[in-house]
Amino acid sequence: MDEVLSRIWQSLDARVNGPLMFRLIMQPLIAAALAVREGLADADAGKPAYFWALLTRPAERRQLLREGWTAVVKVFVLAAILETVYELIVYGRIYPFEALLVSFVLACVPYILIRGPVNRIAASTRRTRSSF
Q1: How high is the pLDDT of residue 89?
Q2: Taking the CA atoms of the chain, what radius of gyration do you get in angstroms?
Q3: HSE (CB half, 13 Å, CA atoms) of 3?
Q4: Which of 37, 50, 96, 108 has CA 20 to 30 A from 68's CA?
Q5: Which of 31, 20, 47 is nearest to 116 (CA)?
Q6: Does the structure show a pLDDT above 90 at 62?
Q7: Quick one: DSSP state of residue 47?
Q8: Alpha-carbon span 84 to 16, nearest angstrom
């Protein structure tokens, strides 16, 4: 198991300087743009911060996950395709776990981390404006 984890860590580190490096910048930016759009929509609808709601509202968790997945699925699929192409170019084979891990980090993590704060900032900005 240590051997596998060591190989994964080394190959993840090598991705930063390898071919198709642009995906490490573009995919999180696209996911962030989607998160901003959804966070603003959440603020308009008066919804709580996305990640916080995932943690604290178990009854709504399934719907929230479905909603988030629907928004980010295209970016995740693109990330998985590009990661698979990268692995074929560099390694000559596909490592499915690594491809899914990198795709998740590039597409889903930025979305989850950005959507809630955008909601909170937009909601507080709108409350401030309406009080004047």
Answers
A1: 87
A2: 18
A3: 0
A4: 96
A5: 47
A6: yes
A7: P
A8: 15
pTM equals: 0.77
Judged on CB neighbours under 10 Å (0-12, 13-18, 19+), 24 is middle
pLDDT at 130: 62
19-to-31, 87, 131 alpha-carbon distances in Å? 21, 10, 52
CB hemisphere CA count around 39 (13 angstroms): 25
Q: Which residue has tokens 């995919």?
A: 27
Which residue is listed with tokens 């988030």?
68
Contact 106, 24 (CB under 8 A): yes
Residue 95 DSSP label? -
Residue ranges of domains in the chain? 21-131
Q: Which of 75, 65, 71 is nearest to 102 (CA)?
A: 75
Average model confidence (pLDDT) for the chain? 85
For residue 28, the SS3 value is helix
